[in-house]
Amino acid sequence: MANYIVDLKDKTADNISISGGKGANLSRLHSIPCIPVPDGFVVTAQVYSDFVLSMPEIENLLSRLEDIASGQTEAISQLSKQIRETIEKFSFPLEFRDEIIKVLSRYGDSTPYAVRSSATAEDLTGASFAGQQDTFLNVTGDKNICEAIVKCWASLFNERAVAYRIKNGFKNNKVTIAVVVQKMVDSEVSGVLFTADPMTSDRFTTVIEAVSGLGEELVSGRKNPSEWKLREGKLQKTSDGEGGVQFDEPRLLELTELGK
Asked: DSSP per residue over 211-224, as a string?
């Protein structure tokens, strides 16, 4: 099954059409020596195209979706649900399951993984699809990983994502999705670095938000983050979040330099 599974360290994985936005960026980070990136692999967008888009039921449903306008919220809701349910019934061929087992044996069969959606339309100029699809954490075993991959595919048709694509003129049958399967990190602290202030769009201010534990606690809004701002070489802690997250200033300055 050539072109179906690519290691994140493989140079070909930095292509968005192969690995999606998230997968391509992770592959590029792997090539930077000073940044440790958890090992993993990409189930390429070609797998989604060959296995899902070729399904007659999906072809029919996507054709119907093209006739729906952005204001038809009830129709979008119903048809999106039908598409998700149809995709979730998919079972991988034994040949592909064997390939997944073979790849997992290289990384650790019992290792917990993050199974992460990586759409080929993420952070485009004029439109951002990032965060609209699902990620599944602490997944173990080939059976559960395969199920999580299928759920990532199905999440391409979350109602919100479908409505956004229709509103912005993207054809739902042209957007594809890869899936990143990456070793979990049992993190003490997780955070997000913004190279521009997300509240003011000031590109001369770098913002770091961090929480204790997994990053899911931050991006889901379940925890209030601690926040730091860097401007003109001066670092200031602007809020204390839950968990009392602490960083030493030299490390934070190093992180902000990497984010540029």
From this structure: EES-THHHHTTSSP
Average pLDDT, the chain: 87
Distance of CA 151 to the CA centre of its chain: 13
Contact in structure between 4 and 46 (CB atoms under 8 Å): yes
pLDDT single digits (tens) 171-229: 888 889 999 999 998 888 888 888 889 888 898 898 988 888 887 777 777 888 888 88
**Which residues of the chain are in CATH 3.30.470.20 domains?**
189-258
pLDDT single digits (tens) 21-40: 999 999 999 988 878 899 99
CA distance 1 to 16: 20
CATH 3.30.1490.20 fits 5-183, yes or no: yes
Task: Give the pLDDT score at 251.
Answer: 63
Identify the CA nearest to 212 among candidates 234, 190, 237. Answer: 190
What architecture does CATH give domain 189-258?
2-Layer Sandwich (3.30)
